[in-house]
């Protein structure tokens, strides 16, 4: 069993509590109960790759395989975000609660990775076998030194985060990749799943970056929302696999909403609040043409705050 830190609060009577109450306490110590909070997933080069569509997928044509070659941004290649899971080093009872919770996660939930190798997904049979094998080991073993707990990108809630340093790669990779030998002289259809793009505030203040959004809307045609991170993140090279949760609940005002019929942004609050990261005219000038050309019916710009967990 993991020894408590010298100054940590202790409750020696915990083992005398009814099992049901102990289980409830263990569950309250898990990262989340039902649904993980949205997180920032760092863009990295290498996610744009050709793929062949299969029956039932978008852009599937009726003819040969060459027609069904599309150029896709593979979100599954983004580095997973990590979660701290200290419960696995407490005792066998706590590990059992963690195991049941992991099995209920589904394919988009947290995965166990042995450092250097994936061990299985939350509800996979391999994970059950791993847990049985782990329970046979000494309880004193430091499992956190052997395993990491990570979650893959979920386009329904997570944001693709592009830093100042990776912005140029983000803009040029789709075209650069299509000039490589396997795609040269091949016509492909672009397909990208990300719905939420996040950028630091320094980019929204860059005129050249703003003018790039017409190209971004062409490559990432599914984008529905732009989050501008207004706080300083002080990023480091190794931050790509550390979990950054974002939210804009603390920034309740200051959104802009695109109205295709009027071909203009509108203030989400009806009037300017002073908290907008862009003015309506500035947003129209930098993004309006691209949104109109792509016939996007909905697009929003919101200030957001990123918090490291």
Assembly classification: single chain
Number of domains: 2
β-sheet strand percentage: 15-25%
Tell me the major beta sheet: 6 strands, mixed, barrel
Question: Which stretches are low in confidence, meaning pLDDT under 50 for 5 or more residues running?
Answer: 118-126, 133-140
Features of this protein?
309 residues, alpha/beta, single chain, four-stranded antiparallel beta sheet, six-stranded mixed β-barrel
Care to give the gist of this entry?
The chain has 309 residues and is α/β, with parallel strands linked by helices.
Written description of the protein model:
24% of the residues lie in helices and 22% in strands. The chain has two domains: 17-36 and 80-151, no CATH class; 44-77 and 155-308, no CATH class. It contains eight helices and 15 strands. Residues 118-126 and 133-140 have low confidence and may be disordered. The protein starts with 18 loop residues before the first helix and ends with a strand. The radius of gyration is 23 Å and the shape is globular. The strands form three sheets. A six-stranded mixed beta barrel has the order 1-8-10-11-15-12. A four-stranded antiparallel β-sheet has the order 4-7-5-6, covered by helices on one side. Helix 2 (92-103) packs antiparallel against helix 3. By secondary structure, the protein is of the alpha/beta class. A hairpin with a 2-residue loop joins strand 5 (111-114) and strand 6. It has helices spanning 19-28, 92-103, 125-135, 167-178, 201-204, 207-211, 213-219, 280-293, and strands spanning 39-42, 48-52, 69-73, 81-83, 111-114, 117-120, 147-151, 159-161, 189-192, 196-200, 225-229, 244-247, 256-259, 264-267, 300-308.
């Amino acid at each position: 069993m993991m020894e408590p830190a010298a100054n940590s609060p202790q409750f020696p009577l915990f083992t005398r509590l009814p099992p049901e109450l102990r289980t409830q306490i263990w569950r309250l110590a898990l990262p989340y109960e039902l649904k993980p909070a949205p997180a920032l997933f760092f863009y990295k080069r290498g996610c744009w790759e050709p793929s062949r569509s299969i029956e039932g997928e978008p852009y599937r044509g009726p003819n040969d395989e060459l027609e069904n070659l599309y150029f896709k941004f593979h979100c599954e290649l983004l580095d997973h975000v990590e979660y701290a899971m200290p419960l696995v080093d407490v005792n066998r009872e706590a590990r059992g609660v963690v195991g049941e919770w992991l099995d209920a996660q589904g394919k988009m939930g947290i995965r166990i990775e042995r450092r250097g190798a994936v061990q299985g997904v939350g509800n996979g049979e391999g994970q059950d076998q791993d847990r049985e094998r782990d329970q046979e080991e000494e309880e004193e073993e430091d499992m956190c030194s052997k395993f990491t707990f990570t979650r893959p990108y979920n386009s329904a809630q997570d944001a693709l985060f592009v830093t100042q340093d990776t912005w140029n790669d983000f803009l040029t990779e789709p075209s650069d990749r299509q000039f490589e030998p396997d795609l040269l002289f091949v016509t492909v259809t672009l397909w990208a799943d990300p719905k939420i793009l996040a950028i630091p505030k320094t980019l929204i203040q860059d005129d050249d970056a703003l003018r790039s959004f017409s190209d971004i809307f062409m490559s990432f045609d599914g984008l529905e929302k732009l989050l501008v991170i207004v706080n300083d993140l002080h990023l480091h090279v190794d931050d790509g696999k550390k979990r950054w949760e974002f939210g804009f609940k603390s920034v309740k005002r200051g959104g802009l909403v695109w109205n295709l019929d009027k071909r203009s942004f509108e203030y989400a609050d009806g009037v300017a609040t002073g908290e907008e990261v862009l003015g309506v005219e500035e947003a129209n000038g930098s993004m309006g043409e691209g949104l109109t050309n792509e016939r996007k019916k909905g697009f929003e710009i919101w200030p957001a705050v990123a918090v490291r967990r």
